[in-house]
Amino acid sequence: MNSAILRIALFATFALSAFPQHRLHNDAADQSQKHPWMNTALSPDERAEMVLKEMTLEEKMDLVHGNGMPGWGKPRPNAYLGNGGAGFVLGIPRLGIPMIQMSDAAYGVRSSAENGRYSTALPSNLASAASWDPEAACEYGALIGRELRAQGYNMTLGGGVNITREPRNGRTFEYLGEDPILAGTLVGNRIRCEQGQYVIGDIKHYAVNDQESGRNEVNVIIGRRALRETDLLAFEVGIDTGNPAAVMCSYNAVNGDFACENKFLLTDILRTAWGFKGFVLSDWGGTHSTIKASAAGLDNEEPNDDFFGDKLKVAVDSGTVPLSELDQHVRRILRSEFLSGIVDHPLRKSVVDVEGGFATALHLAEQSTVLLKNDNGVLPLDRSKIHSIAVIGSHADTGMISGGGSAQVDPPGRAPARWQEHVWFPPAPLKAVSAKVPAETVSFDSGDDPARAAALAKQADVAIVFAHQWLSEGMDLPSLSLPDKQDALIEQVAAANPRTIVVLETGTAVTMPWLGKVSGVVEAWFAGSKGADAVANILFGDVNPSAKLPMTFPLSEADLPHPQIVPPPPGSHGGAAVAGNGEAKPTFSITYNEGLKVGYKWYDAEKKPVLFPFGFGLSYTTFGYSNLAVHDNIVSFTVKNTGTRAGAEIAEVYAALPAAANEPPKRLVGWSKVHLNPGESKQVSVPVNSKYLSIFDEAHDAWKLEPGAYTFMVGGSSKDLPLVKTIEKN
Ligand code: BGC
User: Fold this and answer.
1) What residue ranges define each of the domains in the chain, with the CATH number in brackets?
2) 74 CA to centre of ligand 1 in angstroms
């Protein structure tokens, strides 16, 4: 038997024996006697070093690439060792090192239908950012971590944190909004708790993969200061908070070099400036070279071995790539395996806790739903006064829309979702609304014929129009308008019944030409397995909404930094062009000349009015702010519930930097979610990290606190900041 076949046979034995429990325990006990690196008292670095010393060149090569993904080209001979996920990396059974089984898991574990398992769909990542709640982010990560392991995976490919620079980006729902500190804090807490379940955590897509159009061939041009203070700050905060074991580099190029062979990103920033010690894996097909990528700091090619297979081995054999460089890749991967606990806690498939998942999904969706408009207290609906409800539109009799692409979670009991299929996730909002009132008071119209829907609305006490805007990886939106003539439907229904409430199921901002004509607007986002119940709880006041927008809703696309999406060149096939020397090159560029002005910073600086500002969200109660004090980077103030219902307020702290810093007018530097009973007041203290008050000084390649006057502003949204105090810092 040649060595490759022998290794495959060994893996097969290892894989097949991987799940029976008694075998695992015995194996673990045997291993720790046999292998000194199984001593958990040693550090991940020490353990990795010991294993590395034992490894053959072949074994090292096995660790630095994937082994295919179902549906991605021809299956490889060892494909049967995979678990149906996005990819896997071989283990080293003789040394007790397990395979890494990877699955996408943006808002839940993907491909569950394919491997005969079940996954909870949580509210989309963007929705979860609307909770502004690090504890909720932790619950989110822990649930996904548990379900990954139950399904036989020990690595997540979740952790998307590209900031919302371009709201038409088809993956906006997979990310955490436009502010780097909010997004970074939340992704870090998610990863921290995901890894707490013994899975390798991942943060992606590093970096500036801020639009899908031409993502494989675009060169993003951005200044160094803007890069550090916008997109990279989200990663810096996320890595600092969550200590992920892995970073996924993105498809696009940044300032000339593809992200997965970009020494500035992968070594100078990630490792030297931030001290990241985990491994870097490429986005699927995002590797374009062997020597350059390896030297730049890419550790693992996914999902295949086009560059980090034979080509890398030949380069190592000939000394073009030093063995020490290969060792460094392997060391980082091994270290991550020890750090995340996947070596000490072997996989054991189990049944997903469906009910527990529902409870978490419901709780998180309730914390994520933003009340945007509530004229004359139309909400919450008063069961004693409402005798007829017209529910209209958006397949509300089936489910709520979910986000597509590699993030898609399969609903229970159906075939696996196709790439970019519109999936209406049950339960149906119609059912959830009907459960709140005598069922006969609720009627439904599909909205296909707006005149018919308006006629139904006219006879009802209240009309609830569900409206959706679907998003997916691999596409960008042509505009921020609701598709399928839903604006016209809402206009007609609102004309027939002024008590019209719109429930939005969107993956990013939408424009609302009808806003002045409806009484209520609820942003439910892509709300997950319990979204419909969460919406009903909010509509009827069983839950008081507390979420706030993690991104600006602009008035029109004309107000965006780039009124048009910059498209790839005509005739492009979606891949990077290959030059005569075999080198892949970007085919077009986007210059992010808005610089530091991303999201609300753009609208503030350009003095552009918006539809709904960053940080905005209503409650069924009201809050008052007083007593601002600032001492040693601690901002303290009082929040009072001035209304009649218990509720939670997300109190936001912004800072304006000294003029010499040359920054946009203000930035978010901290926040706190405060739960208050009617009439109750609480003193709130928000510590502000000095980095969040700093600027990136290109000349010194370091963060710098500019001396001068800092103005702190506190309140309930980026446009409602009643408390203001200026202090001097030297
Ligand atoms: C996406 C990644 C994903 C990978 C594996 C790529 O197309 O950009 O986010 O993890 O596929 O499914």
Assistant:
1) 3-248+290-340 (3.20.20.300), 369-543 (3.40.50.1700), 621-729 (2.60.40.10)
2) 18
